[in-house]
Amino acid sequence: MNTYIPEQLIDEIEQLKELNKFDEAMKKINTILVKDPSNEDALLQVTDIQYRQGEIGKASKAIDFLNAKKNHEDPLGLYIKGVLEMEKNNWIDAKKYLRKALELTKAENHEIIRCYGLCEYWYGNREKGVNLLKDSFSINNKDAEVIYNLIEIYILEQNYKKAKSMISYFYKHHKNIQTIDKDMEYYDNKIALFEKFITTQHMFTPLHA
Fold first, then answer.
1. Which residue among 17, 24, 59, 151 is least enclosed by CB atoms within 10 Å?
2. Within 10 A of 14 (CB to CB), how many other CB atoms are there?
3. Cα–Cα distance, 195 to 50 (Å, whole number)
């Protein structure tokens, strides 16, 4: 049984992570792991910190331990493992973990679908990848990351008409757009750059139907 982690301690850890004070956050997590080395919540925090620090190998070890503990049947653990493999451009392995997470969640989790779609696209299954991203958007059409991904992919596909449509959607619903680990300013800046790029491309490339 996991040691209970006080909500106040979790809040303190999250605040330190937001301030990029990862060493201090890790010290607080270690106070839990000393008492309970297998604490799942604490190990997930370790994975997140190591991921944010770019230490993908170390993050993978923590999540591998958790997945083994749960017989590779936990959607969250499989999703995280898939994301870590994506960071290493290991698309085949990433697809394997995300596909299983997708099956376990009955394809109802838009974030898992989003990541799986990106895997398929970058692996070379471009049409399948785009369709999966559209499926993710249909489940949660206010997720900034899904909208951003679709705009980027449409631009890569030179489908500027659809990219512009998604950009218009972003601005129209701006106040209701949801973000998770990035500020809205990040998406505002990125999408403004996409707009400028499309404007220049219109001089040379006809709109797709």
1. 24
2. 13
3. 34
pLDDT of residue 10: 92
189 by Cβ neighbours in 10 Å (0-12 / 13-18 / 19+) ranks as exposed
Give yes or no for a contact between 97 and 81, defined as CB atoms under 8 angstroms apart. yes
Rounded distance between C-alpha atoms, residue 46 and residue 48, angstroms: 5
**At a CB cut-off of 8 Å and minimum separation 6, what does 29 contact?**
13, 42, 45, 46, 49
| pLDDT at residue 155, as a whole number | 97
Helix segments in 53-183, DSSP class H: 56-69, 75-87, 91-104, 110-123, 126-139, 144-156, 160-172
Residue 172 contacts residue 145 (beta carbons within 8 Å) = no
* Per-10-residue mean pLDDT, the chain, length 209: 81 93 95 91 93 92 93 96 96 98 97 98 97 98 98 97 97 96 94 95 59
CB 64 within 8 A of CB 52: no
